[in-house]
Design goal:
- The complex is a heterodimer of chains A (121) and B (107).
- In chain A, strands 2, 4, 5, 6, 9, 10 and 11 form a seven-stranded mixed beta sheet that branches. A four-stranded antiparallel beta sheet of chain A has the order 1-3-8-7, with no helix packed on it.
- In chain A, strand 9 and strand 10 form a beta hairpin.
- The termini of chain A are far apart.
- Chain A is 0% helix and 54% strand.
- Chain A has 121 residues and is mainly β.
- Chain B has no helices and ten strands.
- Chain B is mainly beta and 107 residues long.
- Chain B has a six-stranded mixed beta sheet with strand order 2-10-9-4-5-6, with no helix packed on it.
- The chains are: A mainly beta (121), B mainly beta (107).
- Chains A and B meet through strand 5, strand 9 and strand 10 of A and strand 5 of B.
Chain lengths: 121, 107
């Protein structure tokens, strides 16, 4: 059974960079599938941030495109999210997930437990 | 972006009831529609993929239907563990977007 676990700071200052890592267990991220970040906030609901393949191919939400960097570390079976220039609107529970369906047609079958990130001074 | 609208936003039902939730897309998405269940403090859980395919391990009382712009999630004989919030999501194009959720509460 695939397991995913998010890690990173729970508090980020405004204008700083939010950095999260997702560690994947019991499944190699090089075995296909797309690896994904999503977030959930009371104001915006569930929102797809972006997905990446183990070879470095990424697709990002156009609404966040200019602020997102997704990366993968196959040696550690991890993938990461950097979101820069954060504001209070970026406060949310952030999830990592595995995506099925192929590029540009994602749906999500395994999720991490989620981590709350608060943007505040 | 394609907008996903769910009806109703919330409903009250009793154990044993049949419940139907509707999801409408702002344009045709063929069958690229998926349903999730989320309980408080937990991540969403995939129930139905591609409109009508039951995810492995999901009870058969859950079923999905529809195509184009209108889709339904039906729960036959509601069980205590089914009280949760349900979300639809399209995967027709980028970005995939979710409905606002339907909260199923105990009557």
């Amino acid at each position: 059974q695939v397991q995913l676990q998010e890690s990173g700071p729970g508090l980020v200052k405004p204008s700083a960079t939010l950095s999260l890592t997702c560690s994947v267990s019991y499944f190699s991220i090089t075995n296909g599938f797309y690896w994904t970040w999503l977030r959930q906030s009371p104001g915006k609901g569930l929102e797809w941030i972006g997905s990446l393949y183990y070879n470095g191919y990424t697709q990002n939400n156009p609404s966040l495109q200019s602020r997102i960097t997704l990366s993968v570390d196959t040696s550690k079976n991890q993938f990461s999210l950097n979101l820069n220039s954060v504001t209070a609107a970026d406060t949310a529970v952030y999830y990592c997930a595995r995506a099925r369906g192929g590029a540009s047609s994602y749906y999500f079958d395994f999720w991490g437990r989620g981590t709350l990130v608060t943007v505040s001074a | 972006d394609i907008q996903m609208t769910q009806y109703p936003s919330s409903l009250s039902a009793s154990v044993g009831d049949r419940v139907t939730i509707t999801c409408r897309a702002s344009q045709s998405i063929d069958g690229y529609l998926h349903w999730y269940q989320q309980k408080p403090g937990k991540a969403p859980n995939l129930l139905i993929w591609a409109a009508s395919n039951l995810e492995g391990g999901v009870p058969s009382r859950f079923s999905g239907g529809g195509s184009g712009t209108d889709f339904t999630l039906t729960i036959n004989s509601l069980q205590p563990e089914d009280f949760a919030t349900y979300y639809c999501q399209h995967s027709y194009n980028i970005p995939p977007t979710f409905g606002q959720g339907t909260k199923v509460e105990i009557k």
